[in-house]
């Protein structure tokens, strides 16, 4: 008998359906307006929290659902189908929570993760210098007095702690409502009990958090690509040239077929990476592949969708130009 199985469980299908319904009925109708204004989607974040679509990683011992990476990715793909800007805003909590989930002690988890399940609160994940991205080792001003063993330390701080300065909102090319800001720590005092594991353990914690959160990033890219494919397919069936729908022109139908293949393969890549996490294995290899591949696919499929829309694809009255802008961050 074979142990390889890709059929979703009833619970997984239920979470997927709930997220899909929320995306179609509540996110898509307002996504263009949020993209235009760049406003933080507070009502949608609160609604996602009410539906149980946020904080899925939080352990049951802290009041959470304790879902695995695979289930979280299913939810993420559906939310991203609606709008990756909104999905990124919602998913930010998972990134902020992950260091506490993988490295926090029982007291830290119950105090900070437990609060996230009691009301729709947001948390953030700050990693080293501006512009460093996930290159945690990139620093411009290391303290020469700090011992090498204490170079990187993970810790938890309250957002209203004295010395924390929240920067201005960056108006990005895409995913504009997701709220990107710089955070400055100036003489911030961190309670000893808020240090994760011990001084000097920060690098390993950061890498572990990235490994576990790369599959959802890939899932978000797949959700965007699937939306682009669906929009292009719908348009190709409705738009007529030379007396017939453009989907009946071989060049268009071949392009749609290639887009569909790319979406399916990218989905399998993130599901494999998520499965490795849930199996308790290090997933750096598969997570890196999934994130890079799905990011490229999102950009390719979104660009192809714009091509199928022709001149209308360049028009903000149609949805695909937004998808093309939103996709770019996955390659940056």
UniProtKB/TrEMBL annotation:
Pathway(s) this gene product operates in, as recorded in its UniProt entry: Lipid metabolism; mitochondrial fatty acid beta-oxidation
Designated gene of the protein: Acadm_0
Lineage: Eukaryota, Metazoa, Chordata, Craniata, Vertebrata
Reactions it catalyzes: dodecanoyl-CoA + oxidized [electron-transfer flavoprotein] + H(+) = (2E)-dodecenoyl-CoA + reduced [electron-transfer flavoprotein]; a medium-chain 2,3-saturated fatty acyl-CoA + oxidized [electron-transfer flavoprotein] + H(+) = a medium-chain (2E)-enoyl-CoA + reduced [electron-transfer flavoprotein]; tetradecanoyl-CoA + oxidized [electron-transfer flavoprotein] + H(+) = (2E)-tetradecenoyl-CoA + reduced [electron-transfer flavoprotein]; oxidized [electron-transfer flavoprotein] + hexadecanoyl-CoA + H(+) = (2E)-hexadecenoyl-CoA + reduced [electron-transfer flavoprotein]
Keywords for the protein's UniProt record, in alphabetical order: FAD, Flavoprotein, Oxidoreductase
Domain of life of the organism encoding this protein: Eukaryota
A UniProt-annotated Pfam family: Acyl-CoA_dh_N
Name of the protein in question: Medium-chain specific acyl-CoA dehydrogenase, mitochondrial
Cofactor(s) needed by this chain: FAD
PROSITE patterns from the UniProt entry: ACYL_COA_DH_1, ACYL_COA_DH_2
A biological process from GO: fatty acid beta-oxidation using acyl-CoA dehydrogenase
Role of this protein: Medium-chain specific acyl-CoA dehydrogenase is one of the acyl-CoA dehydrogenases that catalyze the first step of mitochondrial fatty acid beta-oxidation, an aerobic process breaking down fatty acids into acetyl-CoA and allowing the production of energy from fats.
Gene Ontology CC terms, in alphabetical order: mitochondrion
Residues covered by the Acyl-CoA dehydrogenase/oxidase C-terminal domain: 200-331
MF (Gene Ontology): flavin adenine dinucleotide binding; medium-chain fatty acyl-CoA dehydrogenase activity
Protein family according to the UniProt entry: Belongs to the acyl-CoA dehydrogenase family.
Acyl-CoA dehydrogenase/oxidase N-terminal domain location: 9-118
């Amino acid at each position: 008998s074979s142990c390889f199985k890709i059929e979703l469980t009833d619970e997984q299908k239920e979470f997927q359906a709930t997220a899909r319904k929320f995306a179609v009925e509540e996110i898509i109708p307002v996504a263009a307006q949020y993209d235009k204004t760049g406003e933080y989607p507070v009502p949608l974040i609160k609604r996602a929290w009410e539906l149980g679509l946020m904080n899925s990683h939080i352990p049951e011992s802290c009041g959470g659902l304790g879902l695995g990476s695979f289930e979280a990715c299913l939810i993420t793909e559906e939310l991203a189908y609606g709008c990756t800007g909104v999905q990124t805003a919602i998913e930010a909590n998972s990134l902020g929570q992950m260091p506490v989930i993988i490295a926090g002690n029982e007291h830290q988890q119950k105090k900070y993760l437990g609060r996230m399940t009691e009301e729709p609160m947001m948390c953030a994940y700050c990693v080293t210098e501006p512009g460093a991205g996930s290159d945690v080792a990139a620093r411009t001003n290391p303290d020469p007095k700090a011992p090498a063993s204490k170079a990187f330390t993970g810790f938890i701080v309250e957002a209203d702690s004295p010395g924390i300065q929240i920067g201005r909102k960056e108006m990005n090319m895409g995913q504009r409502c997701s709220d990107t800001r710089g955070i400055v720590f100036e003489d911030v005092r961190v309670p000893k009990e808020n240090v994760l594991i011990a001084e000097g353990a920060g690098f390993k914690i950061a890498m572990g958090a990235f490994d576990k959160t790369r599959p959802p990033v890939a899932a978000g890219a797949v959700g965007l690509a699937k939306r682009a494919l669906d929009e292009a397919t719908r348009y190709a069936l409705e738009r007529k040239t030379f007396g017939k729908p453009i989907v009946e022109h071989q060049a268009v139908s071949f392009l749609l077929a290639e887009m569909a293949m790319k979406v399916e393969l990218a989905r399998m890549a993130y599901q494999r990476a998520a499965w490795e996490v849930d199996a308790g294995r290090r997933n750096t290899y598969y997570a890196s592949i999934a994130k890079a591949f799905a990011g490229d696919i999102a950009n390719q499929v979104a660009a192809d969708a714009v091509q199928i829309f022709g001149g209308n694809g360049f028009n903000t009255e149609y949805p695909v130009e937004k998808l093309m802008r939103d996709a770019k961050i996955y390659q940056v």
